[in-house]
Amino acid sequence: MNNVPENQRFPFDADAFRARFANTRLANWSDTLIQAVAERQLHHGDLPRWQEAFNALPTLPITQVDLNHADGICAMTQEDVNALLESTATGAAPFNTDGTPTYTISDAAQKLEPALQGLKPWRKGPFRLAHVTIDTEWHSDWKWNRVLPHISDLTGRTVLDVGCGNGYHLWRMRGAGAATVVGIDPSILFSLQFQAIQKYINDSNVSLLPLTMESMPADMRVFDSVFSMGVLYHRQDPHAHLKELLQTMTPGGELILETLVTLGEDASTLEIEGRYARMRNVYCLPTVPMLARWLSESGFLNVRFVSIDITSRLEQRTTQWMPFESLSESLDPNDLSLTVEGLPRPRRAIMIADAPG
Predict the structure, then answer these.
(1) What is the pTM assigned to this prediction?
(2) What is the pLDDT of residues 261-306, one digit of tens each?
(3) Over 80: is that where the pLDDT of 2 sits?
(4) Nearest in space to 167 (alpha carbons), one of 202, 206, 139
(5) Residue 346 in contact with residue 277, Cβ under 8 Å?
(6) d(CA 64, CA 78)
(7) For the chain, first and last CA: distance in Å?
(8) Which string of b and e fits 107-123 if b means at least 16 CB within 10 Å?
């Protein structure tokens, strides 16, 4: 770390996190969590470029925040709200075909999109910040809509989202009534994207820590609801991940697990050698019965299967905000039921289970 240039070291504001957690269940864990971040010694060669983009974000007079809007997480100025109201009243489109607004925006607001573009690729979303819609790779709202009807009411809960990316689902959890929402994700870029959104939403009850699940304190047991969505298949030891999740949960807390699976009525796994749908570090895909067994063996109770869905090319795709290869390039062009490696295309199952009371 001593050889890393100062401008490539991730700036982590420990005091801000300590203040944010002061009146929550995490207060007694603040120093431990901050130490865990420090031990990771985060740095990245692209950090100066990302930091420049972040610093270029304009200060805007946000007057309306909507964490449950159909267009995504929204934070808008009064001029944006007025334009939408006028559009509804007159039928006139508020945006041109190229996405630029038909209404006048301030000089400061004109700096918003170039700055946000400097933080690409944007994978989870969508977001609407002032006049800018961030059309992310994933329609993460679709996943949320599949999950939400099956989980316990989040009102007043302390919630953890593991592998949260840029934090899209953190805002949805907060919008569903959670009192304190914490996400963890090791990516520096995702942390900066989260901070960009937070600049306009400005909700101190939502936090993202640049940590992995493995670096979280053992036996923490402060979270009422724990989400692990899109993480388990990247863990070489799935039992270890499930036990780590359990150690963060209050007695009777609820786990919401979303992960890739393979089809089958028996408790078995599809072992992966090399890549899966062009992804590295995918080790095996369980059947739903095997996934249920893993949860039970790890100490969870009342394990229930919620849904299984084939990932759509409309749900995960290339956009101007994520211009690289996506799901379409990961499937066999001659047989869309298979990946380019000849394996079954991605299917995602949702399981819910309870921590012992």
Answers:
(1) 0.96
(2) 999 999 999 999 999 999 999 999 999 999 999 999 999 999 999 9
(3) no
(4) 206
(5) yes
(6) 7
(7) 43
(8) eebeebbebbebbbebb
- Tokens 């921590």 belong to 355
Please give the pLDDT value at position 95: 86
Three-state secondary structure readout of the chain:
CCCCCHHHECCCCHHHHHHHCCCCCCHHHHHHHHHHHHHHCCECCCHHHHHHHHHCCCCCCEEEEECCCCCCEEEEEHHHHHHHHHHHHHCCCCECCCCCECCCCCCCHHHHHHHHHCCCCCCEECEEECCEEECCCEEHHHHHHHHHHHCCCCCCCEEEEECCCCCHHHHHHHHCCCCEEEEECCCHHHHHHHHHHHHHHCCCCEEEECCCHHHCCCCCCCEEEEEEECCHHHCCCHHHHHHHHHCCEEEEEEEEEEEEECCCCCCCEEECCCCECCECCCCEEECHHHHHHHHHHCCCEEEEEEEEEECCCCCECCECCECCCCHHHHEECCEEEEECCCCECCEEEEEEEECCC
Q: Which residues contact 245 (CB under 8 A, 6 or more apart)?
A: 162, 213, 226, 228, 255, 257
Residue type for position 95: F
73-77 and 335-339 beta bridge pairing: unpaired
Cβ–Cβ < 8 Å for 30, 17: yes
- Looking at residue 1, its pLDDT comes to 63
Helix 168-175 vs helix 188-201: angle between axes, to the nearest 10 degrees? 40
The Cβ of residue 355 has, within 10 Å, a number of other Cβ atoms equal to: 23
> pLDDT tens for residues 88-104?
888 888 888 888 898 88
**Contact call for residues 123 and 322 (beta carbons, < 8 A):** yes
**Helix 288-297 crosses helix 238-246 at what angle (to 10 degrees)?**
50
List of residues 6+ apart from 111 with CB closer than 8 A: 56, 57, 58
